[in-house]
């Protein structure tokens, strides 16, 4: 079974992101729900928006923050699931 | 605390003085009102359409308006000899239940464009619940239009002071917000770089969907920089009676809406702009989104892509936005407890003075003065429409 971190995702065309500093708020236009992203979440979002894989965001996070790989990967998997459940991302 | 109405009286005066808008509505009412009929003035303001309906012979007129400005109507009705035929309803029309459905419903709940707050839902509800079979709805139909526009003046908000300013400050961090901000404009025909295209036809006799999602192609008819998109509407109040806030028409109170392009493209005649335009009603206000690209008229190559939205014009508090998420877990706060206590003190006999004093005694830190406590009580009661 393919790891979700190795799946290529695309940002939903209903999602619009508003960035202030390192944080981001994403709005789903169709259903009007908001998602607040911290700097790690915002980094993942930008990675997906550029067409890159989630595992690429993992490497960027490991380079920037003092955190172990397993924690980052598990957090990203959970976060990707939330974004998908919120219809903000779809598999490409 | 004094609750200030949405428009001041002078603004209502400007709407009456706005021609040909007012003349068109007057003629439409004159034709539609029959002796003794029932008319609803929806979103009445201070009720000028209600007064006119009486003047033209309506037997009963209901003026519905949640804003305090409706309080002006009865003195005006008395001055015009029609107070006995007018009923004032200070509430949202969606909460009003008529004794008798209306033969005519007249409204102008637009903003700069016809997609404004809950205009569509209000009209839909009125059409379904308040209008008699075969009744007349005014306006009848609006057509939303778009064209490419060249206007250094309208675009100035995107350039100054963000890209440069005379104080030597680097304000470029704010530029992304500025270039996603809509503005009101009054452009002339010479500013248009393309023929107008229809974005949407809103027929108030049938509309149900408040949102718009459409794709159009705008063909540059002359060389120049396209600073943005200009949006307006052609209004049909009744058959053969209408007006427009298009460039070249008499300036109306609505103005036109200007949506800037973040990186204004240099166009040659024949270049095409493929545009996806969306209007989404979110949190009681419309968000406008515009995205697309320029297609070179000679090579067919795409360039100058853009993806913009007025959602990106706002500096949003992430915590406040997250609080609106369905998975957010609210935490009880002292302010919540103050409101809980305040509501518990409302028993139909206690006045706001005694409620305020009780709250001030219980929460001296949060409500350090009587004035602060009273303002809090009044504000909370106004949320429930009791003030």
Please name the defining characteristics of this protein.
heterodimer; A: three-stranded antiparallel β-sheet; globular; B: 387 residues; alpha+beta; Rossmann fold; Hnrnp arginine n-methyltransferase1; 3 domains; six-stranded antiparallel β-sheet; five-stranded parallel β-sheet; 17 strands
Verbal overview:
The complex is a heterodimer of chains A (92) and B (387). Chain A is α+β, with helices and mostly antiparallel strands and 92 residues long. Chain A is built from 3 helices and 5 strands; from the N terminus they run E-E-E-E-H-H-H-E. A 3-stranded antiparallel sheet of chain A has the order 2-3-4. Chain A has a two-stranded antiparallel sheet with strand order 1-5. In chain A, strand 2 and strand 3 form a beta hairpin. Chain A is globular, with a radius of gyration of 13 Å. The model of chain A has no long low-confidence stretch (mean pLDDT 90). Chain B is an alpha+beta fold and 387 residues long. Chain B folds into 3 domains: 9-108, Vaccinia Virus protein VP39 (Rossmann fold, 3-Layer(aba) Sandwich), CATH 3.40.50; 141-319, Hnrnp arginine n-methyltransferase1 (Distorted Sandwich), CATH 2.70.160.11; 334-383, no CATH class. In chain B, strands 6, 7, 8, 11, 12 and 13 form a 6-stranded antiparallel sheet that branches. A 5-stranded parallel sheet of chain B has the order 3-2-1-4-5. Chain B has a 4-stranded antiparallel sheet with strand order 9-15-16-17, with no helix packed on it. In chain B, helix 10 crosses helix 11. Classes of the chains: A alpha+beta (92), B alpha+beta (387).
């Amino acid at each position: 079974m393919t790891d979700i971190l190795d799946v290529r995702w695309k940002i939903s065309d209903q999602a619009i992101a508003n960035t202030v500093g390192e944080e981001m708020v994403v709005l789903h236009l169709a259903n009007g729900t908001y998602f607040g992203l911290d700097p790690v979440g915002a980094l993942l979002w930008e990675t997906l928006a550029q067409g890159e894989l989630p595992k690429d965001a993992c490497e960027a996070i490991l380079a920037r923050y003092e955190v172990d790989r397993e924690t980052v990967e598990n957090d990203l998997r959970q976060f990707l699931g939330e974004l998908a459940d919120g219809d903000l991302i779809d598999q490409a | 605390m004094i609750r200030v109405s949405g428009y001041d009286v002078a603004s209502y005066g400007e709407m009456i003085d706005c021609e040909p808008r007012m003349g068109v509505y007057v003629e439409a009412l004159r034709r539609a009102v029959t002796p003794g009929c029932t008319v609803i003035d929806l979103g009445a303001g201070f009720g000028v359409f209600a007064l006119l309906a009486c003047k033209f012979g309506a037997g009963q007129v209901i003026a519905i308006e949640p804003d305090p400005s409706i309080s002006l109507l009865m003195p005006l009705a008395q001055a015009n000899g029609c107070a006995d035929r007018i009923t004032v309803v200070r509430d949202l029309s969606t909460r009003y239940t008529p004794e008798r459905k209306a033969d005519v419903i007249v409204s102008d709940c637009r903003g700069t464009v016809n997609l404004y707050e809950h205009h569509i839902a209000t009209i839909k509800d009125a059409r379904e619940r308040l209008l008699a079979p075969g009744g007349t709805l005014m306006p009848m139909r609006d057509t939303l239009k778009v064209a490419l526009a060249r206007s250094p003046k309208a675009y100035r908000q995107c350039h100054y002071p963000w890209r440069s300013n005379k104080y030597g400050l680097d304000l470029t961090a704010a530029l992304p917000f500025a270039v996603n901000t809509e503005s009101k404009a009054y452009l002339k025909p010479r500013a248009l770089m393309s023929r107008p295209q229809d974005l949407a036809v809103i027929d108030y006799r049938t509309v149900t969907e408040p949102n718009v999602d459409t794709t159009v192609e705008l063909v540059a008819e002359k060389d120049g920089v396209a600073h943005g998109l200009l949006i307006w509407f052609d209004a049909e109040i009744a058959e053969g009676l209408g007006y427009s806030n298009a460039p070249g028409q008499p300036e109306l109170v609505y103005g036109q809406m200007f949506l800037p392009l973040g990186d204004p493209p240099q166009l040659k005649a024949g270049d095409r702009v493929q545009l996806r335009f969306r209007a989404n009603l979110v949190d009681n206000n419309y968000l406008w989104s515009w995205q697309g690209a320029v297609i070179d008229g000679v090579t067919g190559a795409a360039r100058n892509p853009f993806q913009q939205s007025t959602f990106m014009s706002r500096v949003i508090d992430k915590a406040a936005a997250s609080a609106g998420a369905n998975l957010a877990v609210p935490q009880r706060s002292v302010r919540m407890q103050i409101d809980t206590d305040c509501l518990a003190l409302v028993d139909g006999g206690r006045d706001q003075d005694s409620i305020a004093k009780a709250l001030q005694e219980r929460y001296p830190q949060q409500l350090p003065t009587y004035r602060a406590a009273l303002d809090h009580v009044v504000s909370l009661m106004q949320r429930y429409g009791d003030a």
